[in-house]
């Protein structure tokens, strides 16, 4: 047993003594082998369905930061469904890749099966009305950005990054592609092993990815923006 697993079992000791705690699942970057020196341990504590409260917190155990989530099963299913509607599989992924610590009623296993079903569902692409409105909003963002290019460099770069972030989210939705949290975006774009371990598909438009990265690095972001627009 690895050191982080020992820390998890140590943390769970008082929780396992509670009758309303029916199971636990450890997930996050440590389980599939994606952990870095900055990674924490994600731990889901499953409560009896009759429990009306939820809890979330962080605790250091033997040098490992454990971020824990205590929820009844119905709340977890709701989170998976809401994530799918938003074009995300964050909660479903945690259960799909998670390792069951204990499961007194079989509910944790059911949650994993539910996560598998969520992964089989493709994201719905937006309709024509959304697409046309979004195209206009992107054009408007570029126009506003052009108008601010003579501001102080730090302000202009800040504006560029905000607009780029919004563009990425909208384009991903248009493609029906899943995004990850900003801190993991580079790994989504360029790390094949990370994508494989996390059950992530490569971003569908490689040309867009290359232009996006150039824009982030370039001092002439407005020119990059024009290329993406065209």
| Helical fraction | 40-55%
Tell me the name of the CATH homologous superfamily of the largest domain: Beta Polymerase, domain 2
Instruction: List low-pLDDT spans.
Output: none
State the distance separating the first and last CA atoms: 54 Å
Query: What is the CATH C level class of the largest domain, in words?
Result: Alpha Beta
Number of domains: 2
What do these coordinates show?
The relative contact order is 0.10. It is built from ten helices and five strands. Helices cover 54% and strands 15% of the residues. Strands 3-4-2-1-5 form a five-stranded mixed beta sheet, with helices on both faces. Helix 2 packs parallel to helix 4. A hairpin with a 2-residue loop joins strand 3 (55-61) and strand 4. It has two domains: 3-120, Beta Polymerase, domain 2 (2-Layer Sandwich), CATH 3.30.460.10; 128-229, no CATH class. It is of the alpha+beta class and 230 residues long.
What attributes characterize this protein structure?
single chain, 230 residues, alpha+beta, Beta Polymerase, domain 2, 2 domains, five-stranded mixed sheet, 10 helices, elongated
In a nutshell, what does this entry contain?
54% of the residues lie in helices and 15% in strands.
